[in-house]
Amino acid sequence: MSQEKKGIEIPTAWRFKRYYFFAVLTGIALILPWITINGNHFFLLSFDKLKLHLAFIQFDMQELYLMPFLLMLLFLGIFLMTVIGGRVFCGWICPQTIFRIIYRDFIETTILGLRKRIKNKQQEPDMTKTENKVKRVIAILIWTALSFIAAADLLWYFVPPEDFFAYLADPAEHMTLFGTVIGLALFLIYDIIFLKENYCIYVCPYSRIQSVLYDEHTVMALYNTHRGGNIYDEHKTKQFTSQKDLQAFKPSAECTTCESCVTVCPTHIDIRKGFQLECINCLECVDACTTVMGKLGKPSLVTWSSDYEIIDQKGKTKYFRPKVLAYIALLVGITIILALMGSKKEHMLLNINKENRLYSVERLADNSVQVDNSYEFLLQNTENEELKYFFEVIPPKGMEGKIIITKPTEEFSAVPNIKKKKIVVLSTTQMLVDDERKDTVIPITIRAYAVGHEDKIVVFRESTFTFPRADVIKSAK
Questions:
Q1: Gap between the Cα atoms of 115 and 137, Å rounded
Q2: 2: pLDDT confidence band, cut at 50, 70 and 90?
Q3: pLDDT at 5 over 50
């Protein structure tokens, strides 16, 4: 919705755009844990089942080398947003901000009328009135219920919903989960109702590191001192409290000193003072000034722009500058590496340990000698269904068919997520090496596969077969 005022178009408020964006993010966060493809989630880090689900692909905990790349993507993505748009993450994506909007703007103001105006965030409700006390209790109860939902939603990315509710039905056996839900909910109640934006100002470490990432082209909410006039001096001391005094000092100053940009600020700052760490780029001050100045037929004095363009007036903001391109290159590179590593996921896990005894030698009825090497295979089915498995040995070139598996002789089953131990015996009746001095270690490859899925569920492991020296063969009984 927009309207015309003396030729100046007042666009849709950033506040409403944020509401729409928050609704989309909230919907995604609540719905995503319930979506599965072949039993796999979009993202699930399960410490209970030692699994990582990523993009609907299941990885075993032994493949957690992917997690550092995910964390790098997360932090580099936030850094990139900060370099381009300041604390845009805080104002548009951070759960703290979204929860405060839900509680303050939706529950307290829209539903209960405890606060009279959304645009005045500095005036706290009069809690001397009984009516307001009742409304405050109702608001706390509503947010308490929502806090438990939010806490549960967070845990659904670590304990999938299908297990979460089953575990909660038996709290005595799952006290850690039960306690975590309660602890998170209590923290959200305290944080959103009592700590409020002080969390952003004093607790959140992001506000302390963001200034290191800023440069003159970083986009943020800025007050145009060239048009509006300097309300504060270089020491950040307020000089003018009325438009009359301001215009007496600078006749061209357009600021009306209405302080709409101040009363609407959730972190209680005055954007006219200049750059401040507390600003979360929610752009509510931009909306306030746009409305006031629009009624006067003038553009807003507070805009979402950069020092380079508004304060220094050197030209247009440069978005694709070397620092930004470097972050983009890093993000693209890490994404490619993550995709390549994820594409090499092993659909089964296999560890091979050779037994302490190097070999056993036995003379057969036909006077031939059989040499056995024994191994312990530890196999884990990482799929979501029970499968049958078998092995085959791949000897070096020239020894094809001379080393065979004599145990097990039949395929065997393995259920998901349970490690299965198998004793495997490789044998030969051939004279592979005729060495009088020492045993010979022959490199071999073990191919393990799921029967019926040989093209997909297959792994190769390097091992060795020890063949005894010639005198051991001759003395075999």
A1: 14
A2: very low
A3: no
How many Cβ atoms are within 10 Å of 321's Cβ, its own excluded?
14
Give CB contacts under 8 A, 24+ apart, made by 158-166.
158/44, 158/45, 158/46, 158/47, 159/46, 159/48, 160/33, 160/41, 160/44, 160/46, 161/33, 161/34, 163/48
**pLDDT tens-place string over residues 219-252:** 999 999 999 999 999 888 999 989 999 999 999 9
- Please state, in angstroms and rounded to a whole number, the distance separating the CA atoms of residues 335 and 229: 46
Q: What is the rounded average pLDDT of the residues 214-221?
A: 93
Instruction: With a cut of 90, say whether residue 349 has pLDDT above it.
Output: no
Question: Mean pLDDT over all residues of the chain?
Answer: 90
For residue 8, what pLDDT is reported?
A: 63
Q: Number of C-alpha atoms within 13 angstroms, CB side, residue 108?
A: 26
Residue 155 pLDDT: 96
Helix H or strand E segment including 211: helix 206-213
H and E: helices and strands count for the chain = 15, 18
From the number of C-beta atoms within 10 Å of its C-beta (0-12, 13-18, 19+), residue 116 rates as exposed
Return the number of other C-beta atoms located less than 10 Å from residue 191's C-beta. Answer: 18
Where in the chain are all domains bearing CATH 2.60.40.10? 348-474
Distance CA 283, CA 264 (A): 10
* Closest listed residue to residue 58, CA positions, set 348, 423, 446: 348
Q: Report the candidate in 205, 88, 96, 92 with the shortest Cα–Cα distance to residue 150.
A: 96
Strand boundaries in 49-94, DSSP class E: 51-54, 57-60
CATH architecture for segment(s) 348-474? Sandwich (2.60)
Q: What is the distance between the alpha carbons of residues 378 and 446, in angstroms, rounded to a whole number?
A: 13
One-letter identity of residue 118: I
> Percent of the chain having pLDDT more than 70?
98
Between CA 53 and CA 163 the distance in angstroms is: 15
Query: Higher-confidence residue: 9 or 433?
Result: 433
**Residue labelled with tokens 């370099």:** 83
Q: What ranges make up the beta strands (E) of 315-439?
A: 348-354, 360-363, 369-381, 387-394, 404-407, 412-414, 419-428
